[in-house]
């Protein structure tokens, strides 16, 4: 497996998919491509914010690993009883310029429902 993947889904020791690139878009694409096959899988992501964590809960994954995560992301996983491991905690995910909070983190600040998060993100990203 290439170590340059930024997002992977593994189930029963088999790599279901590995994607390069960043952002929420690849997670949404993976959910749409794999559908129910994501249920019970383990996800590896380059970074994990609240938006990504809510999508992992929505996809019913059974575990998440990331080199860096926000406290809000880990809290989402804990509430959903999904084991998560982060090597490092970060205060927040930054936007592409590195100047401010990620727009998806801002968008979902007051959202706790994985279904609502999925629908908001899907609607937003299909416009772009």
Largest sheet: 6 strands, mixed
Structural class comes to alpha/beta
Q: Average pLDDT across residues?
A: 93
- The second-level CATH architecture is 3-Layer(aba) Sandwich
Number of strands: 6
Give the topology string: H per helix, E per strand. Answer: EEHEEHEHEHH
The third-level CATH topology is Cytidine Deaminase, domain 2
Instruction: State the CATH class.
Output: Alpha Beta
Q: How many separate domains?
A: 1
**What helical percentage do the residues reach?**
25-40%
Q: What is the distance, rounded to the nearest whole angstrom, between the alpha carbons of the first and last residues?
A: 31 Å
**How many helices?**
5
What fraction strand? 25-35%
Explain this structure to me?
The protein is α/β, with parallel strands linked by helices and 128 residues long. It has a single domain (7-127), classed as Hypothetical protein TM1506 (Cytidine Deaminase, domain 2, 3-Layer(aba) Sandwich). 38% of the residues lie in helices and 25% in strands. The chain has 5 helices and 6 strands; from the N terminus they run E-E-H-E-E-H-E-H-E-H-H. Helix 2 packs parallel to helix 3 and helix 2 crosses helix 5. The protein is globular and about 40 Å long. The mean pLDDT is 93.
How do the strands and helices of this protein lay out in sequence?
Blueprint: E1 7-11, E2 14-19, H1 24-34, E3 42-45, E4 47-48, H2 50-58, E5 63-70, H3 71-79, E6 84-90, H4 103-107, H5 114-127
Parallel strand pairs: 3-5, 4-5, 5-6
Antiparallel strand pairs: 1-2, 1-3
Helix pairs in contact: 1-2, 2-3, 2-5
């Amino acid at each position: 497996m290439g170590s340059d993947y930024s997002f992977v889904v593994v189930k029963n020791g088999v790599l279901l998919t590995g994607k390069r690139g960043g952002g929420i878009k690849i997670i949404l694409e993976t959910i749409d491509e794999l559908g129910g096959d994501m249920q019970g899988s383990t996800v590896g992501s380059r970074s994990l914010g609240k938006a990504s964590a809510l999508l992992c809960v929505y996809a019913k994954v059974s575990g998440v690993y990331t080199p860096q995560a926000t406290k809000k992301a880990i809290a989402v996983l804990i509430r959903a009883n999904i084991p998560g491991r982060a090597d490092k905690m970060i205060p927040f995910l930054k936007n592409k310029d590195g100047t401010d909070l990620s727009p998806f983190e801002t968008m979902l600040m007051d959202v706790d429902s994985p279904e609502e998060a999925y629908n908001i993100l899907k609607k937003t990203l299909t416009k772009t």
